[in-house]
Fold each of these.
Amino acid sequence: MTASTRITTPFTAESTAAEVVDGIDLTGRRVIVTGGASGIGIETARALAGAGAEVTLAVRDLAAGERTAEDIVATTGNKQVLVARLDLADQSSVAAFTAAWDGPLHILVNNAGMMASPEMRTPEGWELQFATNHLGHFALTTGLHRALAAAGGARVVAVSSSAHLRSPIVFEDIHFREREYEPWSAYGQSKTANVLMAVEAARRWADDGITANALMPGGIRTNLQRYVSDEELERLRAQSAGAGVSWKTPEQGAATSVLLATSPLLEGVGGRYFEDCNEAEPHQPGTRRGVAAWALDPEAATLLWQVSVETLAA
Ligand SMILES: NC(=O)c1ccc[n+]([C@@H]2O[C@H](COP(=O)([O-])OP(=O)(O)OC[C@H]3O[C@@H](n4cnc5c(N)ncnc54)[C@H](OP(=O)(O)O)[C@@H]3O)[C@@H](O)[C@H]2O)c1
């Protein structure tokens, strides 16, 4: 297969996570799903646990995590569903999580996220969507690098969004200190960062047998829309319907994450962006599908990695 061969699979926008993982045995594999107690994170964790993996729900709300774990144990019969505290906007929480992780990690699903919030900042002054969606996952993933390398053939799955089409990384002012804050630009920038991190992790860590890919799960009604008014949501739904984005159930929304985490068709494949269970085509103007060139740009990926290291070290 050449670097330019687009990966296609028998699965579609309608496929569910359970269908994608059907016949795959994950016994002995260890998985982390961030944001695993809400929305598509629950169904991602359920499908992976259903295939026999040990799954850790990395959550900031432990009570919600415990409720979800009980539900997944009850529906899958797999008792190896664990809960651990992780607040991605709090670097000390991320550091405590990675320090406590022991042994190999086969699959890391960076799924947690927040969308289109009003302007908020961490105590460091970082814009909160970038801090949560990107910097928190960057610190988590690099903090778990040794565990991923120890697994032999580990996979990192970055849950991005078609919203990455809204903004590249604005390196001159990532944290909106000079430009006016705009909730969707901030979300879009953070989702471009998710793809770029997969591109750079795949390049840097290829010798460790680690692959990393990114995805758009589809449009799914979850708690993610908590900052979006009903009117705006209706407008977005109408726009999406006319621009080729399908609305899905959470079980369908989890399918592309589970595909990237487990499919033999993805063996050794890294640094790519998928939607509806297939590798995306380049974005065409006038649509909300496909992947923007800025999200796969290897130079931007390297620069973002450096900036992220420096930001976390400052
Ligand atoms: N739903 C869609 O239509 C859609 C479309 C494109 C992309 N996505 C992406 O899909 C992923 C999952 O979204 P979803 O729709 O399932 O949303 P969701 O139901 O709101 O789940 C997001 C999860 O992220 C967690 N989270 C938020 N901030 C966090 C923090 N600081 N530390 C740790 N966890 C945090 C939330 O925890 P709490 O429950 O404690 O808030 C929640 O568990 C996101 O990355 C999102 O950008 C979703």
Amino acid sequence: MPNIAASVEAVPRSRIRELAEIAMSMDGVLRLYFGESNLPTPEYIKQAAIRAMQDGFTFYTENAGLPSTRAAIAAQYRALHQVDLDPATEIVVTASGVQALNLGIRCVLDPGDHALALTPAWPNGSSSIMMANAAVQQIAHPLCGERYRIDFDALEAAVTPRTRMLLYTSPSNPLGWVATEAEQQGLLDFARRHDLWLVADEVYDRLYYGGARLGDPVPSVLRKATRDDAVIVIHSFSKSYCMTGWRVGWLIGRRDLIAKATQLNEFIVSHAPTFAQKAGETALAEGEDELVRMLERLKENRDLCLDALRGVPGITVPKPDGAFYLFPRVQGLDDSFAFCRNLLMETRVGLAPGVAFGEGGEGSFRICYAAGRSILEPAMERLTKFLRAGA
Ligand SMILES: Cc1ncc(COP(=O)(O)O)c(C=O)c1O
């Protein structure tokens, strides 16, 4: 009997999924384990997809995505970041953020190469590196007072002759940490000095509470990098527009990388779904008011959860500036999966275990606070009661 390839067997399961699969077999669970809201995609986006189908956007498109979708993405970068991108050569529309991550990583790593990843982080980045038959070295963000930082000394010490890339996520899933401009510059300088690709996962850049007003994005690293830098930006429609099930995202990078990624896309998915690309254009063009309303709601949810958790002895939870997660640390906890499973069984609240997020994640759990209040409020009540009982 032939075996499954050893390199594939070595890719670990997502422990978020593992917990979720138990929860999905149960009734009445308050589900806060995935990175999405229970609120549906806004009506204007659904109508745009229906219109697109009626208008004939049901055929194959270019591997890089529809020219009009790439133009809309470029226009968004010009408006939000004052960055000029060439839609013809510097953008690929992908079938989701995770596909953008996979494609970008596949283009820069050879088997046996090494990659660095800042963690705790969404596990798919490290797993994509392993799927490219490369090795990943995770460098944990240290928590200094109320803020996570980057351990540049640990990064320097981890570079080997085979290190080819550094992956970071800002705003972070699961920390909600947002890189300062000085930290972005530090990462860029580090990557330039060691000849590395800098892969910036910016899928949460619109979910930012630290700007002058809600709706201001986290400044993209593209503002600091030149178009000749070895910088790749990952993005998605999923989070900003409640489009997780639509599977549309994008990749921005140097022209030679984008040319190769476009070619490879043919063999992976060919292109993102055509009518979903058109709906994405509408989201970018018309989505600002709805986005700000969502941010107001998310900020209130964040503060509700923070207030509830900060009253519980033994819990440390920094106030995050971005994304829609809290990552509380529980004093003395050394098996976050068992903790989340017990919580699920006893209270029917589903959270993601910290161990799923790699180095620095054990001892914590992740709450996605994007859910509606009818779910979030009882979930927080049950969770804090469980924590106070000393589980
Ligand atoms: C950090 C990060 N990057 C990328 C993604 C990918 O999102 P999608 O594949 O839905 O576009 C996610 C989703 O949770 C994420 O948390």
